[in-house]
Amino acid sequence: MDMQMQGEVVVGTSGTTADDVIAVARHGARVLVSDEALAAVAASRQVIEDLAAKPDPVYGVSTGFGALAVRHISPDLRARLQRNIVRSHAAGMGPRVEREVVRALMFLRLKTLASGHTGVRPVVVETMAALLNAGITPVVHEYGSLGCSGDLAPLSHCALTLMGEGEAEGPDGTVRPAAELLAAHRVEPVELREKEGLALLNGTDGMLGMLVMACADLARLITSADITAALSLEALLGSEKVLAPELHAIRPHPGQGTSAANMLRVLAGSGLTGHHQDEAPRVQDAYSIRCAPQVAGAGRDTLAHARLVADRELAAAVDNPVVLPDGRVESNGNFHGAPVAYVLDFLAIAAADLASIAERRTDRLLDRHRSHGLPPFLAGDPGVDSGLMIAQYTQAALVSEMKRLAVPASVDSIPSSAMQEDHVSMGWSAARKLRTALDALTRVIAVELVAATRAVELRTGLTPSPATAAVLRAVRAAGVEGPGEDRFLAPDLALAEAFVRSGGLVEAAEGETGPLG
């Protein structure tokens, strides 16, 4: 599936891309289903209808579900069976999940339905696309998925909307009964038939959608951290010699080399680095400065692995049972979220460590015993002013929270469905905590940015690099104030956070360096 034009994504039979997921989830791209996909869907549906007409039990077609699969369901009860699985499984609780997550989940389920492996009718696929295009977003709750047998409760709430039941958010942001929203947008509710309820619920779509968006966000944040690390090195009058490519070539981790190259490009032309040390010249900078590329680089390599897993999953058709090309309908365990859950946890660990080293650099900038001539806490009049003292407290609290969020969810498992589903992935939980961790990482980098830019400006008489000067101009233009007497600090931190989150930091640096890795 490729983006055919700006604002439009065409769903075929061969999977999708991360860019397409983000286009639909975050930017409201219109979804079209190809004729090829509709033909494949119709062909697989015929297989299901042929099986439904036979007396032999087929899971999800003529049997109950999970531990209740031992019961054969007569033809007159099968529509009720599919309707009931959606209603009973729509059992989520807690806060509403973000709109972009629900749109990603719906789009990825649509992708699998369009693969021709699930056995639903074309009308189910077309109606799912119509919901996305109308901007109708089912109300999905935080809790309800164990990451195995699919993201069951979240997907069930989406299927409920497809049936015209439950609640959904309209394009104007108002939550209304789904039936009203469908009627207002002339979308006909679907009356589910054999296997269709099951096919709408049985996938890793929620955790995968969150993984795809997290990968995009973390990529931007790692580059942002390379920039703030370079600014901190500059503000601390550190040495850029440790960034030389020949040093990183002898330990050839790709991410490390990329981060070192990014920092070196940001520092090019600096009048602060390595030339203005105090009475006791430094042979080596502290680890938080000298090892910045190694830590950020390890995060980059972890991210590359996560993207590989995501790409494989985006090419998959996750359902149980599945319709195979030769017409067989087979049960399987492809709905188990372990591959996705693991990398979600890996990314949370990488994010926590990236935040940890950034906080150590900030603390160094504020400590007059280690900052090589900067005023205590970068205050205007130390003692009268506290400067950025408590900004570092906030940063430390965020880092501590991220360390807790780095505890893996995927090593946990609570058996369910009367021990039929006796091992689960907890991938949805891994994804939810990763999103929280990336929000925290954004704030941690923002605090380092505030401290590093203020410190560079306090190095009067010394000229920063052109890239650093560009960042300084952009940060100040964004409303973040520079050195001076104490003021209400929270608004500055919020503006810095928005600047980092929007990509403004990377954009400002790249205006001088060109594209960073």
Approximate helicity band: 40-55%
CATH architecture of the largest domain: Up-down Bundle
The number of strands is: 10
What do we call the CATH topology of the largest domain? Fumarase C, Chain A, domain 2
Along the chain, the helix and strand elements come as: EEHEHHEHHEEHEEHHHHHHHEEHHHHHH
What's the CATH C level of the largest domain?
Mainly Alpha
How many separate domains make up the residues?
2
Largest sheet descriptor: 3 strands, mixed
Task: Give the name of the CATH superfamily of the largest domain.
Answer: Fumarase/aspartase (Central domain)
For the biggest β-sheet, the strand order reads 1-2-3
Query: Helical region count?
Result: 19
